[in-house]
Design a protein that fits this description.
The protein has 331 residues and is α/β, with parallel strands linked by helices. The protein contains 11 helices and 12 strands. It has helices at 3-15, 30-45, 131-141, 148-161, 172-183, 188-196, 201-211, 229-235, 247-250, 281-287, 305-330, and strands spanning 19-24, 49-53, 71-72, 82-86, 105-110, 121-124, 215-216, 222-227, 257-263, 269-275, 291-292, 296-301.
Length: 331
């Protein structure tokens, strides 16, 4: 099925909807929030009754986004006939009890590989720079004017998901849509300041502690930092404050893969992977029951931090050896 056909299916589902629930993944990033709020603005413009929910709420650095005040932690007791999953690789990502929503029509809009098309209508394209790219095309199909509210959310989503246009998903379409949003009144300098230059002091104190845990693999191809629950308690911070920390180990000279271990309440570790492009971290994450993109992936793993760190170090070093071997054989 072509992307155009999928957009038509999503358009049909949204136009026929009476009451819509918008969901995004736990620990939301700029794409999850921006996509949700951009679509919310469009559906409200169509006169739809619409709620937007994220179990972790809006991250502190995104509270300024237009319509952010509409985000609730739990769905209202209501009869939703349509549920839209945004930026969710699978239906469990929002972290909600889905049983009350089984009777609704599910719409799935996402750009993660391996999504599986779990909705009744699916707009999934791993080639999209961000889920917000797909939301923008849905708004166009709905013939909803993209005003300043939607434009700000779409631009912010693309800015953050491309790492300020530094990552490999910063393709021509990313710049094209970003340019269109600027023409609709978005100020790139102001958005960047609001997202990146309004950090709470406690977040920087947490970062200081996290960077002290930096460790490298034997041949310096992987680097890791660790966040413990004790660090959160000592600095009065939370999970949302860790957003972006994984890019520090990734930025180390000579490192191919950076990853962050975050201790969870049940003793497991949530692992965020970031690659500079030559090693596929989605493949590594899948070996631990996770998934994601080639350059950005995640998994939840049981074990001690030391055990998990060593397992990933070994896997990255092995992937590096495989890469070198293929290069020698090719040439």
């Amino acid at each position: 099925m072509t992307r155009k056909t999928r957009i038509v299916e999503v358009r049909r589902a949204l136009l026929s909807a009476r009451r819509v629930l918008l969901l995004s993944h736990k620990s939301p990033d700029g794409d999850a929030m921006g996509s949700s709020l951009a679509l919310l603005s469009g559906l409200l413009a169509l006169g739809k009754t619409c709620d937007v929910v994220n179990v972790d709420g809006v991250p502190a650095n995104l509270l300024w986004l237009p319509l952010a005040e509409r985000v609730a932690l739990l769905p209202e007791d209501g009869d939703y006939d349509t549920v839209v999953f945004l930026d969710c690789g699978n239906p469990d990502r929002p972290g909600l009890d889905l049983e009350p929503l089984r009777g609704a029509r599910w719409v799935n809009i996402d750009h993660h590989p391996g999504n599986g098309d779990f909705g009744h209508a699916n707009l999934v394209d791993p080639g999209a720079c961000a889920t917000a790219e797909l939301v923008y095309e849905v708004l166009q199909a709905l013939q909803v004017p993209v005003g300043f509210t939607a434009a700000t959310n779409i631009y912010t989503a693309i800015l953050t998901d491309t790492g300020c246009f530094r990552f490999s998903n910063a393709n021509a379409r990313a710049f094209e849509i970003a340019s269109r949003m600027v023409h609709r009144g978005v100020d790139p300098s102001w958005v960047a300041q609001m997202v990146y230059d309004q950090q709470p002091v406690n977040r920087l104190r947490l970062l200081s502690r996290v960077l002290e845990t930096l460790e490298l693999s034997p041949r310096d191809k992987a680097a890791c930092v660790t966040v413990t629950r004790e660090m959160f308690r000592a600095t009065h911070t939370g999970v949302e404050d860790v957003e972006g920390f994984v890019n520090y180990p990734r930025s180390v000279y000579g490192v191919e893969v950076g990853f962050l271990l975050r201790e969870e309440a049940d003793g497991r570790y949530r692992v965020a992977f970031r690659s500079k492009g030559r090693i596929d971290v989605a493949e590594i994450a899948s070996e631990f029951g996770g998934g994601g993109h080639r350059n950005a992936a995640g998994a939840t793993i049981e074990g001690t931090a030391a055990e998990i760190r060593q397992q990933i170090f070994d896997r990255v070093e092995a992937a590096w050896d495989d890469l070198l071997l293929r290069r020698r054989e090719a040439g």
